[in-house]
Amino acid sequence: MKRIFVAGAGLVARPLVKYLLDQPEFLVEVADVEPGRAEKIVGGHPRGMAVKIDIQDEALLAAKIAGADLTISMLPFTFHPMLGRICVAHGKPMVTASYVSPAMKALDEDARRKGVILLNELGLDPGIDHMEAMRVIHGIKAEGGRVVSFISYCGGLPALEANTNPFGYKFSWSPKGVLLAGKNSARFLEDGKIVLIPSEKLFESFKIFPVPGLGDFEAYPNRDSVPYAEAYGIPETKTMLRGTLRYPGWCLTMKKIRDLGLLDQTERDFSGMTYAGFLKELAHAAPGEDLKGALARALNLEPGSAVIGNMTWLGLLGEEPIRAGKSTALDVLAGLMIEKLQYAEGERDMIILQHMFLAARPDGAKEKITSTLIDYGVPYGDSSMSRTVGLPAAIGARFILEGKIRLTGVRTPIDPEIYGPILDELKNHGVEFKEERTTL
To answer: Known catalytic residues?
Structure first.
């Protein structure tokens, strides 16, 4: 039997572990700083084990990795290079669902020399998005065509019936990660020109994006899209844009939250301070000035604006004490959001991922290709986010151990040997794109 070591038992780990335990040839050891979380995921399965682990204990990690045939890291991305280094040292493959960092990329030569693969970006975004993009791009090239435009949007959102709060958002994963993404700048290629969006302008740079059957969404650019023209093998494309989808109203609210300073990561002491007191400070409220009026003045809003209403609903204008000593504004905001923006029991989340290609065919005609994934969580079961992040990583790990993926080095799922069998297996679990083609 093959032994798999899973580091981390967070929000998206359950479908991954369940898939692996459903394979009769695998033993699965799940490690977490909170052993109760690992035990809950393993669920007493005879081929599963749950252990407590301190991620700072490199000696223990090395022993676990050395004793396994493959490691899957579901830890925060900052820990991946350390685990990758240990995996390479012991000649063991590794899978993650996170972006390849420079520190991870630096392990490529050693991994190739050792003959092992460190397969990253094997989640939803990044992950499934890469795989479907490459499937279509390679198909266009096989027909002698060229990609002249690629636009992709992805959003993890409440299903329509679960969209019940004024933010139009609920958390199926860490709120801190969502908020930190709001501090990124963005860069993309549009009609042959590089467009740079500074971080403070990110939430101003959205457009309304209709999804048939679901309504209108706000779409804004995500990080740096430009390198993907090279990564996807389409340097000839004139447009390359990857972005994020949210329900209408999110962008203006988040822009004003950012403008106010609530995404600041400077540590300070909040002891004895209320939420209202903190916001008065951020808005530079005059003595005796009404907080809503101060916010309206500071943010150039009407006192009755939806944005201030959203802040009020969240609790930011309340007189309750901030439940933190030394912390940051971003962590204070994240703490409120994780309380108020939760899924109710039985509610479904929803994944929307849409790729739009414009291809130039050999006969001179243009073809628009749209590939769309809409997936829902299971009521009282796994969220769509956990399934679409966890399943690709689990399937990739399985195929490495079964010898279906033989590549080495630091990789992402852009090779047919990787994305082909994984996409096929995802279809067996209901994760499938619908494609539409139109000749222009």
So the answer is: 125
